[in-house]
Amino acid sequence: MTAVSALVEELKALRKGRGVLAGKLDERLGPEIRRCCGVRAGDRPSEVRDKVTATLAAAIAELPEDLGGLLLVAYALDPRLRLPFYQERIDRVADQLHRDRRTVRRRIDDGIVHLAELVDGRAPGPPEPGMPDEIGPGWHTEELRTFVNLEPAAPEAFEVRRVVADRDGIGALDLAFTVTSADGGPEIDVFSGGRLAGKRKQATDRVGFELRLPAPLRRGQTHEFVVRFKAGAEMQPHYACVPKQRCDYFDLRVRFPADRLPAAVWRVAGGFQRDLDDPVATGDPVHPDPTGEIRGEFRRLLPGLAYGFRWSRNG
Which of 51, 179, 191, 17 is nearest to 119 (CA)? Predict the structure, then answer.
């Protein structure tokens, strides 16, 4: 049996019961899932769950939407369908899609094969000699508060972020911002909590930057910093957080110009990033308050999925 075929069987077993939310998750993981998710002996239960959830969610986000949506349900990653039994989740989504149960199960089986190939291809290799046996960035976001002001000609976003070190010696944070303006910005200014040590283009629409901390963090130590992003042109009609790793809490506030309120605004919680630009409205409708502001709170964000707001272009 190949590594991928073994991983397929382990992933099929993992979807049973509460999926990734099952109690004593560590005891349900086979060797291939452990390898691909970077689970190590001595990891705390919360670390095991975070690693498995982050690995699966990030890979699922790369699948076609029809398969990805079903796999989110299968592993209880979809917050709207976290029912205690796999068959209950199948029944619910089959009713929603007006499909036969066997068809849904077959599509999930097909999706798991693709998922296994992606997860195996992303699996971390063994550490180099002399390097610590550590997986992941070594920190996570405990709280992120973002304030977006669309009133100026050059819209601004302020981030107040509190992170927690998951191991000793974290002296810098590798961060990214998805560009939402046509000119390829944004300007990045660190107001407090560190220094900007470098900025680089990671993709057509994503800018990566490194934040150098005042002093290395110890495991369990928290640190807060404030960053401003300034777009050089009109933003695309959405703003969302798509975490690369664990994010416990996200508070987003968006202020629209009082004389240019959008005709419609939707809240997106756990959607695919590509859906933010889809002309078909998705998410729950919300309405700006009398001052032109909207606010959304999101908890236990899944890596690779989008949380925030999208709005119509017409004002």
Answer: 51
CB 120 within 8 A of CB 56: no
Instruction: Specify the pTM.
Output: 0.70
Residues of the chain with pLDDT under 70: 1, 124-136, 179-185, 201-206, 232-233, 280-282, 314-315
Domain 139-311 has CATH 2.60.40: yes
Residue range(s) in the chain whose domain bears CATH number 2.60.40: 139-311
pLDDT at 9: 94
pLDDT recorded at residue 235: 80
Q: What is the pLDDT of residue 185?
A: 60
User: How far does CA 226 lie from the centroid of its chain?
Assistant: 20
Distance of alpha carbon 307 from alpha carbon 301, whole angstroms: 8
Query: Quick one: tokens of 312?
Result: 């119509």
User: What's the pLDDT score for residue 181?
Assistant: 55
DSSP states of the chain: --HHHHHHHHHHHHTSTTGGG-TTGGGG--HHHHHHHT--TT--HHHHHHHHHHHHHHHHTTS-HHHHHHHHHHTT-STT---SSHHHHHHHHHHHHT--HHHHHHHHHHHHHHHHHHHHHHPPPPPPTTS----S-SEEEEEEEEEEE-SSSS-EEEEEEEEEESSTTEEEEEEEEE--BTTS--EEEEEESSEEEEEEEEETTEEEEEEEEEEEEPTT-EEEEEEEEE-SSPBPSEEEE--SS-EEEEEEEEE--TTS--S-EEEEEEE-GGGGG-SS--SEEE---TTSEEEEEEEEEPTTSEEEEEE-S--
> Is the bond into 279 cis (omega within 30 degrees of 0)?
no
Q: Are 253 and 210 in contact (CB under 8 A)?
A: no
